[in-house]
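Anyone up for a design puzzle?
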């Protein structure tokens, strides 16, 4: 495991020895008591180190291996940790597509909060790539819906519409003005 604090959950100190993760009531979690050394250790939870290296670096902060293991366990149980190396073979395949993954990093972060087990957010994002969605009608609304689905990582978005693009079909995030006169399903 390469523990990483979930990037979608902002951290804030509430008093001298309590840390709050997240701000929305549905997902906010407070953790304490937290001393300065443990608070400094939290900065190391960025997904770049495995547990053996984290334990070694924690010793430099005068934190025991047991302290690290308990903290990692508490953070995991609270749904605050992710593992950027987890998620199974589908997630591994998505990691190989660095440009795609970078474009959908915010989706992965949000999914990791809604599905708290380490690797679940990336696993669900990878599952989107296997989906096939059909949008019937590519006017102002249909074209925008198709664009959002495609941008969210849905593997195949098929648009069915035999009409031609009209000026009233143009919309931000949908069909561009240059598409007027083209078939809607190809525009």
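Challenge accepted. My sequence:
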């Amino acid at each position: 495991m390469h523990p990483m604090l979930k990037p979608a959950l902002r951290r804030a100190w509430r008093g001298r020895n309590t840390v709050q993760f997240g701000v929305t009531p549905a997902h906010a979690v407070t953790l304490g008591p937290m001393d300065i050394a443990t608070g400094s250790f939290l900065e190391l939870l960025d997904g770049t180190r495995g547990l053996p290296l984290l334990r070694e670096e924690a010793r430099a902060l005068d934190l025991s291996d047991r302290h690290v293991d308990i903290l990692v366990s508490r953070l995991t149980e609270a749904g605050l940790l992710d593992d950027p190396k987890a998620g199974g073979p589908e997630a591994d395949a998505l990691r190989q597509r660095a440009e795609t993954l970078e474009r959908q990093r915010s989706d992965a972060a949000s999914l990791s909060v809604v599905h708290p087990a380490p690797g679940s957010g990336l696993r669900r994002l990878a599952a989107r790539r296997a989906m096939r969605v059909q949008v019937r009608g590519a006017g102002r609304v249909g074209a925008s819906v198709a664009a959002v689905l495609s941008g969210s990582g849905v593997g195949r978005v098929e648009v069915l519409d035999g009409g031609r693009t009209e000026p009233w079909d143009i919309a931000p995030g949908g069909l561009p003005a240059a598409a007027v006169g083209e078939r809607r399903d190809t525009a």
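A detail worth pointing out: The chain has three domains: 4-82, 88-128, 132-179.
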